[in-house]
Amino acid sequence: MTDALLAEAALRPELLVLDLAAGAGDPTLSIAQRLVTGKVIAIDTSPAGLRLAKSHAEQLRLGLRIAWLQADAHAIPVAQNSVDFITCRCGIMFFSNTALVMAEMLRVLKPGGCVALLAWGSFDQPFFDATVGVVLRLVGGSEMPAEARQMFRFATAGSLARQLRTVGFREVCEELLTLPRVWVGTPEELWAYQQEVSTLCLPLFKRIPPALKPEVDAMVSSALARFQIGNILRVPVNVIVASARKPGA
Asked: Please, which residues have CB within 8 angstroms of residue 158's CB and are 6 or more apart in sequence?
C-alpha cells in the first residue's frame, strides 16, 4: 500500500513532504529514505505512535530527515504555502471533518503542490472477508461498530475525488487498486496482530464468546492460509488511491 501511495507521489529528493496520520511511521520512514536534502514532517495525534516511529527512524539513521509533530490534522501547525507534497495512508476516512482537513492541506501546500491519499475500498474484499467477516458470520447478532464502518466511507467510486474537487483541488485522479498485503509469518500470527491493531473493531472482538473463540480462530486461520506460500502470506486488499494538485505555479 505504501508503494502504491508513493507511486502517486513521484517524490524528488529535495522536497518537503507532510505525512498526515503518520501512526507508527509508515509511510513516513519510506518517504525519508527517498529524500536527500528534503525532509518529512510527520503529524499524528498519538504520542505513543510518534515515539515508536521516532525510535524506528533512529535505528535507520533517518532522524535528521524527519520532524515529528503531535497535532490535529484539522489545524495543521505548518505555514501557508510551505509544503511540496502531502501524503496520508489509511487516515483520511477517519477525520471527523474531512472537508476541513482537505482545506488545511490546500492551505499549507505550495501553489502547484500535490497530495496523495489512500483509503480502504469496500468491506467486501478478501482480507476483511477472511478476518472480520468470519467473526460476523459466526457470532450471532454481531455487527461492525459504527466507528469501524468509517474505514469504508470512500469506497464508493469517485467519492474521494469529488471531495478533493469540492475544496478546490485540481487535476484530481482516483483509482481502485487490488494489492497484496504481505505478511511474513503464519496465518495465526497475522490474525493475532490484526486483533491487536484493529482497535475500532475491539467491541466486535469482545463479543466472541470464549467457548466459540477456538472455532473463530481456526476458521480465520484456514481462510488466510489460502493466501500462504511458504512463510509468506499475500492477502489481496482493495484500496482507493487519489491524487490532486493545488492550483498555481
From this structure: 174
Domain spanning 2-245: CATH superfamily? Vaccinia Virus protein VP39 (3.40.50.150)
How buried is 11 (Cβ within 10 angstroms: 0-12 exposed, 13-18 middle, 19+ buried)?
A: buried
Cα separation, 213 vs 49, in Å, equals 29
CB atoms within 10 A of CB 66: 24
Please list, residue by residue across 31-60, b when 16 or more beta carbons sit within 10 angstroms of its beta carbon and e when fewer do: bbebbeebbbbbbbeeeebbeebbebbeee
Residues 7 and 116: their CA atoms lie apart, in Å, by 9
d(CA 69, CA 67): 7
- Scored b (16 or more CB within 10 A) or e, 137-169 reads ebbeebebeeebebbbebbeeeebbebbeebeb
What dihedral angle (degrees, nearest 10) is formed by the CA atoms of 89, 91, 92, 93?
Answer: 120
Q: Spell out the domain ranges in the chain.
A: 2-245
Q: What is the pLDDT of residues 19-64, one digit of tens each?
A: 999 988 889 999 999 999 999 999 999 888 899 899 999 999 998 8
Q: How far apart are the first and last CA of the chain?
A: 30
What cell was used for 58? 533512529
**β-bridge partners, 84:** none
Tell me what pLDDT residue 197 has.
83
What's the residue count for the chain?
A: 249
Other CB atoms within a 10 A radius of the CB of residue 111 amount to: 10
Query: What angle do helix axes 98-108 and 159-167 make, rounded to 10 degrees?
Result: 50
